[in-house]
Amino acid sequence: MYKIQNFSRVDETEYSLPTDNINLLYYDLPKHFSDDYRSYDSPRLCTIIEGVKEVSINQSERFVYNCNDFVLLPPHSNVYMSMTEYTKALVYEFSDCLIDKVSQKVSEHLQITVAKDIEYSTFLRERIPDRLGTLHRRIQEIIVEEDANIHFLLDLTCQEIIYELMKIKGCYDIIYHHQNHPINQAIRMMNSPDGHAMTISHIAEEVHMSLSGFSQKFKLITDQSPKDYLTRLRLKKSKQHLRNLSVTDTAYEVGFENISHYIRLFRKEYGVTPKQYQLGKSVR
């Protein structure tokens, strides 16, 4: 598994370990490293394998945590982290599909009551319970072993991790609540197969908001406009198409009518042209 040595969104996308239902990010950070850190469209379960982090969340709460603790961040959190010593960290992102699957099976048995007033500024820091710690170590073993069925094993173990989190007061609210928020409903629409063809006004209408209200709320929560988000999403999808299609066909496939404009945006976002990206992938 690749080690991520900064908080760049480009590196997180490039070097994470994705499966059908989760996304794992392994950070290897030097002593005295510090930077802003963000969660994006999904909750993030943040753990430390080695070292210590000093953390400031949403420019308010400050604390220190280590390998005995976990931090659960809701989507679109702003975090400032400082490493007082060399630090290794493993972060989990869980898909909506996996959260739904586990929730539907166990929520009634756990007698969970979802909080109604949870906000995006809400987060949770707790000691790692024994069972959750065992599962966390199992994930690390699976990564090291590199079994041929690694994706299946990771997904299977993470189902139980979500189950254990749901038993901790406050975790369920953060994991599940975000899916019913209109902005996250909009984000799921944008990420759907037909999302690149949708207009911002159509999306706003679908989530029962005015265009101006939707745009303001979207930027408040995600720190980017709906237009910028859609553009970045199209660029991200284009990286997948570039493996099999020409640059021109890729641009049209993800909704860009002007090829030069697509190339310019791609280079601005990723530091290379689409063609250079293709060549780099073929070398690997």
UniProtKB/TrEMBL annotation:
SMART domains: HTH_ARAC (SM00342)
Keyword Transcription regulation listed: yes
Residue intervals of the HTH araC/xylS-type domain: 184-280
Keywords noted in UniProt: DNA-binding, Transcription, Transcription regulation
Keyword DNA-binding: yes
Pfam families: AraC_N, HTH_18
Single Gene Ontology MF annotation: sequence-specific DNA binding
PANTHER family: ARAC-FAMILY TRANSCRIPTIONAL REGULATOR, RCS-SPECIFIC HTH-TYPE TRANSCRIPTIONAL ACTIVATOR RCLR
Identification of the protein by name: HTH-type transcriptional activator RhaS
